[in-house]
Amino acid sequence: MISRRERVMTYTLLAIVAIGVLFPLVWVLFDALSPSSTGAIDLGSLQWSNFVAAWREAGFGQYLKSSLIITGSVVVLGTVVAILSGYAFGVLSVIGEKLLFPLVLIGLMLPMEAFIVPLYYDFLSYHLVGTYQGIILAHLGMGISFGAFWMRTAFRAVPGSLGEAARIDGAGSWTQLWRVYLPVARPAVLTLVLLSCLWTWNDYFLALVLVSDPAHQPITLGLGAFSGRYLVQINLLSAAAILVSLPIIVLSFVFQRQFVRGILSGSIKG
Amino acid sequence: MNPTLIRNPARRNAGQSPAAVRGRKRRRRSGVGSGRRPWLGLLYLAPGIILYAIVVIVPVGQGVWLSFFNWNGVTTATWAGLSNYTGFLSDPALRAAVEHTLYFIIFFSLLPITLGLLSAVLTSSKSVRGAGIFRAVIFMPQVITPAVIAVVWQRIYEPGGPVNDMLRVLGLGGLARGWLGDFTWALPALGLAGTWAAFGLCMVMFVSSMQSIPQELFEAVRVDGAGPVREFFTVTLPNLRGPMSVVLALTMIGAIRLFDLVWLTTKGGPGISTITPTVVLYERAFANPEVGSAAAIGVVMTLVSLLVVLVIVKVAEGRAE
User: Fold this and answer.
1) Nearest to A95 among B41, B142, B297 (CB)
2) Are A21 and B140 inside 8 Å of each other by CB?
3) A215 reaches B (C-beta below 8 A)
């Protein structure tokens, strides 16, 4: 049914699109391996030591430590809070739910610009600006809406009879959550963890506003500072850029399917 | 934005004990059932709702309040009434920012949707082998950190970068320039970088709904002698209204809120030729504080974003009936 001409057209167009997407990435990858600071591409002599040099010159050790502390704390604490909130809304129900649930949902549609300015001045008065606690707190608060909504949906899909059976066996609400509901909802938790990693690691704006002290800045800001200072050393800058994006790329390869599904459902978060 | 997800949690009644089914029925009728312990629920919700209040709800209220004042961030604020709002369109930086946003909607929303549709259709064609690989490649920019995307495109557009190299090879060396430093070209150059970064997501969203279009529909138009183009307009496109509204809302909000890419490449320059509302907000709030004005920008951006979502949802629902 499908003509030969149509097939040739399809492959040609696809090849053009794919090359268009890949070209900038491949170019920067070769830049990163270039022996010359102008980034002149020389496939004859790939200089892998650029990655080490970039790491050292950009002071990435400190930035990476900050990124790991921030992302790790946000993912662990945020997931626990999301599980508790989702359990409250999805299984237990909450006093004032008719008011509280829509209030939480609105957060899905609020852009950060709605609260970033007062948030900064609030944090200034609590002495949280420039600290790990401050940026972690901000990420956690912003993640509540999606986390609660996501885990509520997951817990509601768990057959109520399971919880009922556990209750008859004498399990309290706490035991039911961790022993009955959570194991069933594990795939949803994995997706939430991946999304939380992605959002926190990739964040630039929130950290730019709340963390001016380089000792506590995440690696995205480190890259920004590096590109400001070292635009002349293109090979090192490109190597640094690749180092920053590597952890998420690796995660996305390992958890390919969950990642795509997560990004699809998670993108409703504004 | 995705009401079906909220309204229809999977209901599985089959295989449940009669007691549970009864409990469910009771719950549905009265809203209070066997698993429901509302006071306990509040206890579980407490940490989340407190964090949310501190970071989001209270500051949103403060933002509205601040927008009625003149404040430099240090000395005492003075009442400004509505002046932070009324000056909006006469302010040259903001006016430019709003114009750029309209322009960016083309590059961050309309173009990615078009390219996303094209790639979705192409990779769904049954004659294509390796569709999965093509999709993985096209999706790749989605997993790259925005700060890195800025570095990548800065390199591509540099005076000695590949775009200019190519122009020189083609004998068009006269056109070569530092694209991001050019008053006319910086804006579309950033726009194209945005298109590149966004269309993979559009594609994946379209692909996932195209798979649920009944195959017979395609066969029917093909039997009628339709080519791929007519097939697209009569079968594929009309069946993509749902994802279309989601993608439209997402990408438009992305265009309205654009910051990282601009801040890390041009900082809104040269001059104010690539400035965006969030860049203005950032500068007014933190660099050179006119906090009231920054807060007003935040309030207006919030209202515009909510309005965009509402209109798109309403239009999509109206069409579906």
Assistant:
1) B41
2) yes
3) no
Q: How confident is the model at residue A268 (pLDDT cuts 50, 70, 90)?
A: low
Could you give the number of structural domains in chain A?
2
B155–A31: do the CB atoms touch at under 8 Å?
yes
Kindly report the nearest CA distance between residue A100 and chain B, in angstroms.
Answer: 9
The residue of chain A with its CA nearest to that of B54 is: A141
- pLDDT per residue over A45-78, tens digit each? 777 888 888 888 878 889 999 999 999 999 999 9
Question: pLDDT of A199-222, one tens digit each?
Answer: 999 999 999 999 988 889 999 998
Q: What angle do CA A148, B39, A269 make, to 5 degrees?
A: 10
Count the helices and strands in chain B (H runs, E runs): 17, 2
Chain pair A-B, CB pairs under 8 angstroms: 323
Is 0.90 surpassed by the pTM of this model? no
Q: CA–CA separation, A121 vs A102, rounded Å?
A: 27
Q: Tell whether A38 and A72 lie within a shared domain.
A: no
Residues in B touching A38 (Cβ below 8 Å): 160
The pLDDT tens digits for B30-58 are 333 455 678 889 999 999 999 999 999 99
CB proximity B304 to A under 8 Å: no
Q: What is the pLDDT of residue A68?
A: 95
Predicted-complex ipTM score? 0.90
Residues 18-77 of B with CB under 8 A from A: 19-20, 23-24, 31-32, 34-45, 47-49, 51-52, 54-60, 62-63, 66, 73
Could you list the residue range(s) of the whole structural domain that residue A102 is in?
A: 59-266
Residues A96, B49 contacting (CB under 8 angstroms): no
Q: What is the CATH number of domain B88-320?
A: 1.10.3720.10
A190 shares its domain with A260: yes
Give yes or no: residues A44 and A63 share one domain. no
Clarify whether residues A10 and A95 are in a common domain. Answer: no
CATH number at residue A141: 1.10.3720.10
Interchain pair B152, A24: CB under 8 A: yes
Domain identity same for A100 and A29? no
Residue that the structure tokens 């009231």 belong to: B292
User: How many other C-beta atoms can be found within 10 angstroms of the C-beta atom of residue B263?
Assistant: 23
Measure A20 CA to nearest chain B CA, in Å. 8
Decide if A148 touches B, using CB distance below 8 A: yes
Task: Show contacts of A118-127: CB within 8 Å, 24+ apart.
Answer: A118/B58, A118/B59, A118/B60, A118/B62, A118/B63, A118/B66, A118/B295, A119/A210, A119/B55, A119/B59, A120/A209, A120/A210, A120/B285, A120/B286, A121/B73, A121/B291, A122/B54, A122/B58, A122/B59, A122/B62, A123/A210
State pLDDT tens for residues B164-223: 888 988 888 788 888 988 899 999 999 999 999 999 989 988 988 888 888 888 888 888
Within 144-173 of B, beta carbons closer than 8 Å to A belong to 144-148, 150-156, 160, 162
Q: Where are the domains of chain B?
A: 88-320
pLDDT of residue A40: 73
Chain A contact probe: residue of B44, B123, B248, B286 with most A CBs at under 10 A = B44
